Structure formats: C-alpha cells, structure tokens
C-alpha cells in the first residue's frame, strides 16, 4: 500500500449539503478501490490563484489515504468526470522521510478535527447558609 494525498477543489456555487455530499461521494470512490482513508481535512472556501471556469473561489479538501498503485488511475478517472470538481491533484509519498511527513500531516488533521475533551471541574459543594453570609462591619472613628 502506497501513501497518497489528494487535494481537490469543488465549485463555490454548491450549497453546504451538496458540498458535503460531494466529499462523501469522493471518499466512497476512494474506499471502493480498496483504499484506506487516514484523514480528511476540509479547508473550506478559499480564493483561487487564478480564475478556473470563471470561478474566483473554491472549496478545498485534502484526503490522506493508503491505496494500491493501480487504484489511483480509477480514482482520478472518477474525479475527471465529476463536473463539480474544478481542480484536483494527487501526490504519492514514496521514501521514508516523505512517509514520516505524511504521518505527521495526517495526525495534525486528526487532532484538528477531534474535539478537545471537556476538562473536569472540581465538584461544587454548597456551604451552609450561616457560613456563606459574611458579616461586614464598618467602623468609623471620629477624631
């Protein structure tokens, strides 16, 4: 299994539901090719470097996955025929250093996407009413 990073840009005219449906569809296409998705990073709407099909912006998503080399041709074919995708790019990580970097990037995405655990607060105990009412006395001395 090789390590891959797939960046794709969806059209900005899609609604949030349509965007999420397209991302899910692409992930299903990847897993259908006997691939294992490690992490997915929705980067959100961003400005494109140059207009693509008269669009100035696009919805960026990065998918980190492991797949056999033969699966990439079919995944890219499915991306090419999807009319909602403006651009895509697949990067293969081959040597040990690149694979280590792949692991770091995937871990960073996983950390970013998992909610932080709620901090446990110290239990609040109610004090008896006599202790909570503090008596404040003010002394004034006249000279």
Offer a quick outline of the entry:
This protein has 143 residues and is an alpha+beta fold. The chain has one domain (2-113): Alpha-Beta Plaits, CATH 3.30.70.60.
Write a structural description.
With 143 residues, this protein is α+β, with helices and mostly antiparallel strands. It has a single domain, classed as Alpha-Beta Plaits (2-Layer Sandwich). It has 4 helices and 4 strands; from the N terminus they run E-H-E-E-H-E-H-H. The longest helix is centred in the last third of the chain and has 18 residues. About 6% of the residues have low confidence.
Give a quick set of tags describing it.
143 residues; alpha+beta; Alpha-Beta Plaits; four-stranded antiparallel beta sheet; 4 strands; globular
Instruction: Write down how many β-strands occur, each being a DSSP E stretch of 2 or more residues.
Output: 4
Tally of structural domains: 1
CATH class: Alpha Beta
Q: How many distinct helices?
A: 4
Order of helices and strands: EHEEHEHH
CATH fold name = Alpha-Beta Plaits
Query: Strand content of the residues, in percent?
Result: 25-35%
Low-confidence stretches: 130-138
CATH architecture: 2-Layer Sandwich
Q: What's the alpha carbon Rg, rounded to whole Å?
A: 27 Å
End-to-end Cα distance, whole Å, is: 91 Å
Mean pLDDT figure: 86
């Amino acid at each position: 299994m090789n390590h891959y990073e797939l960046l794709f840009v969806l059209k900005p005219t899609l609604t949030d539901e349509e965007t999420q449906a397209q991302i899910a569809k692409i992930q299903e296409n990847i897993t259908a090719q006997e691939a294992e998705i490690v992490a997915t990073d929705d980067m959100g709407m961003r400005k494109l470097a140059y207009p693509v099909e008269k669009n100035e912006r696009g919805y960026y998503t990065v998918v980190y996955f492991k797949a056999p080399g033969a699966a990439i041709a079919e995944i890219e074919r499915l991306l090419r025929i999807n009319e909602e995708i403006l651009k895509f790019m697949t990067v293969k990580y081959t040597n040990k250093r690149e694979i280590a970097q792949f692991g770091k990037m995937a871990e960073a995405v996983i950390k970013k996407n998992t909610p932080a655990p709620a901090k446990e607060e110290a239990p609040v105990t109610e004090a008896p009413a006599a202790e909570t009412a503090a008596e404040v006395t003010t002394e004034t001395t006249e000279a």
